[in-house]
Amino acid sequence: MSIEIIKGFPSTSDNDYQLNIITFLKSAANTYPDVEVVSKNIDGSIFRYNYYEAFQRVKKLANALVKLGVKPGDRVGIADWNTHCFFELYFAISGIGAVALELNPRISKIDRTYVINHAEAKFIFAAETLLPIIEPIADDLNTVQSYVVITDKKSRDLKTSLAPVKSYEDILAQESADYKFPMVDETSAFAACYTSGTTGKPKGVFVSHRAMYLHTIMISGMFKMGLDDVIMQTVPMFHAQGWGVFLCAPLVGAKLVFSGMYTAETTQSLVDLMVSEKVTVNNGAPAIYMPMLEQIRSLSEKPAFSNLRMFSGATEPPLAMMKGYDELAGNIIHAYGATETTPLVTVNLLKPQLRDLSEDEKWELRKKQGLPVTGVEMKVINEAGADVPHDGETVGELLIKGPWITTTYYNDSRSADSFTNGYWKSGDAATIDKNGYIKINDRFKDLIKSGGEWISSIDLENSIMAHEGVLEATVTGLAHPKWEERPLALVKLRENFIGKVTKQEILDFISPNFAKWQLPDDIVFVDDIPKTSVGKFSKKTIRKEYKDFYTGK
Amino acid sequence: MSIEIIKGFPSTSDNDYQLNIITFLKSAANTYPDVEVVSKNIDGSIFRYNYYEAFQRVKKLANALVKLGVKPGDRVGIADWNTHCFFELYFAISGIGAVALELNPRISKIDRTYVINHAEAKFIFAAETLLPIIEPIADDLNTVQSYVVITDKKSRDLKTSLAPVKSYEDILAQESADYKFPMVDETSAFAACYTSGTTGKPKGVFVSHRAMYLHTIMISGMFKMGLDDVIMQTVPMFHAQGWGVFLCAPLVGAKLVFSGMYTAETTQSLVDLMVSEKVTVNNGAPAIYMPMLEQIRSLSEKPAFSNLRMFSGATEPPLAMMKGYDELAGNIIHAYGATETTPLVTVNLLKPQLRDLSEDEKWELRKKQGLPVTGVEMKVINEAGADVPHDGETVGELLIKGPWITTTYYNDSRSADSFTNGYWKSGDAATIDKNGYIKINDRFKDLIKSGGEWISSIDLENSIMAHEGVLEATVTGLAHPKWEERPLALVKLRENFIGKVTKQEILDFISPNFAKWQLPDDIVFVDDIPKTSVGKFSKKTIRKEYKDFYTGK
User: Fold this and answer.
1) What is the value of ipTM here, to two decimals?
2) Is A205 exposed, middle or buried (0-12, 13-18, 19+ CB in 10 A)?
């Protein structure tokens, strides 16, 4: 359904000037040429250059892409960690009018093959360390014409089964930095990211230049990023364009730090970077921030963070974590979004009128997803399609619409299920409180339906995680012969608590917060909780593994 | 000349969702409904409501406009001071797809008649106190169908020769707040502002919704405006949309304060508002900020301003003024723009790498116009069209281009002289220093050409104004029989210095900064320096009045 657009009186403004993402880097190269861009290499060493040099390399890369045969509209796959090369690829590929296709190294081979074939990518750029995720599927890639390995080795020294193949630094070295970027129609795709649902194949979101441009300036403003910041890109850039945070840095002229390769087990390298580069802005998820907090705590010297803001997404930030950062380092600022929303659509900022809340009330508030970003229309509706009251209690589905929101999946018959009247149906169960703060209670599919009542798995999880002995916890609804579903908690204890904390102790600890029927029927202590490719708890896997847990008894 | 736009691959983003200014108020009404909007009435009393109530009234106003006969594309003139009614009119007029035509009360009757006729305005809204600027020209307005007086009197009680005429509060009172704003094509004009050149008739700039939207979000970010701010609109809203600052407030959810009616002689009311409303962001020009500083100094109790930022435009902020605010109240932040640029295109922010400059060097830096706003292309070129070196010394003309820059004047054959290759030719003589800071040395037409060399009138003016006895000073180039032009300084002394400061004392005071041939040939002490409608020194008037000053000798 399309909305009628009224014509007014013609303006004299330069409305044909297209919103192109390359503008941010070009501006930074002109206005902030000396500002540093820092990137952690695989070997742990640090690469440094500045915006002027970055733009020179991006222009060389643009020439190299053209020589490689990349044409406007082509999809170019990228498999890389958070590096300056990924940064260069985003700008050069989109700058010449092609599309940067984000390849998530954590999805299955089958899904990765599907994504590349569905997007009909003609070229793939892969970090040398990520060749093992591309080589085994190369024979099944229907449209790929050639490969580039992101490495400083010579093309002839590459050891890979991919062909034809070239080396990134090799193709750059041969080019001049003389390139004039065209003006690309702003409705054209800047990047493509496939979102993995709980079932079925990943779905393609193709974000336009216009959407990404608007998102970037809106977000950098709402977070008050400025030229005095040092911005670290920690959210993977293959995941919803890393929230576009690495684009905010050249926009505002801030120093930019790329986290390189890391896992939840190697977050010490992130802490080291934050300290050595004097980071003031970071983005990530509790799964990463929690171990980092422990590591910051164990630093021999208390780090001198200044005006540090840690943007936190994915799941609700645990209270203990927020308080820990507050004491030690800086603010955790909760934000919310999804691949379909470019992604950020809410940010948790404190309204001045709420300054007088008690400390406890403020912490409760700070856990919420926050306030809508201006320009985005959000509503929470009940099953009849009516807005729920702003009482902070009534749950409905969150629907989102606006200039940087997706209106369809690319070439996907499932789109009809996810979009309605221009709104994206988030599938998130949300409330809005009287002050306008949105809280995601759960994914609808993660709510537990017990005896006709809903139980929030997130509330249970957060309560359990507040226990000092608990490192991670997740609660899943499992089929139950009597109640339809009943909650099961999986708990990973901190090392020095293993064997010392009992199920009953945890139940006693959380029971003041819940009705008796809302408590998990059982708690299982595990070594590891299964996670998805983007680090969220994988309830799909848990449901499968524990399928008969209650029914089999 | 139009630039080729390359088509890439289609995106899945909602690119048809138009950037409409009403979005800001609609969002504020939803997300920040309780946040106050404060407006100073003519009688000195204070009007208060909030964003929710403002939006209700704007919807009523939209209904009233439709009933009045306003159609999409119509131009609707507004003659008002900075009030909540002007605020409402901007949103309601543009919201229904019509154009808010800004009527500057300070231009001549002939020019005002020209503006209204040239824009073919069909409706005029005028504050009751501004009827004297409309009534005398009503017979000469060719297209105006009806008038609305901004007052809370009943229509039948209005005393005016205008007809047909209604009262603002009367037409609102009859309407319901049930109105659904259409989506307006974003390239349509949001507002029209005529810029008065030094010669000839005013020239029409019709700013699009898109341009204003982009300008507003970019500026609010660069100035780090947020929901914890209290933003005061002091720049007249009939002058380049008041820099769009009143639009930033609903965008970020900040409290908004309208300054009401004031002149350079009644700035005490602005100081009172700043103190009583706890303003954190203000915008204005040195002509207003200077007397305000004196008034802040004379307050019996030192005001508790917190994080106050005073955005200052028009002319270079005098050092003494900046230092005065720095000690007493807050930062003066110099910004630059013009009606043709929506308006702000540079902001003076301190790059972190310059933190180690000496105090004096920092003050020198802060006087400059600043760094380009990202997204805007600016260049300084010599007469051959080549970029001047970034040495802070070589002067060229500043050219500006970008998504919120004007590319032509509305229906005006003079456009060809002011635009080239998509750039607006600012007519400003500028330098760029090695750190990228732009400094406007002068208008080309204000540079003084003496014996084949250029003398900067601005540098002379600022040096003279640094003298403790000087309140205002302007330097103009006058025809000279031998040197082509020679500078003349007009000086207005502070009251307690009148008769005590001599010409020679001022010449001695400034001579260390200039070559001997650059010094003014004469200094005239005056009671008042002629000013333009927007408060700048009127060199046009001075040149006329003192035409024979050097040649007649």
Assistant:
1) 0.88
2) buried
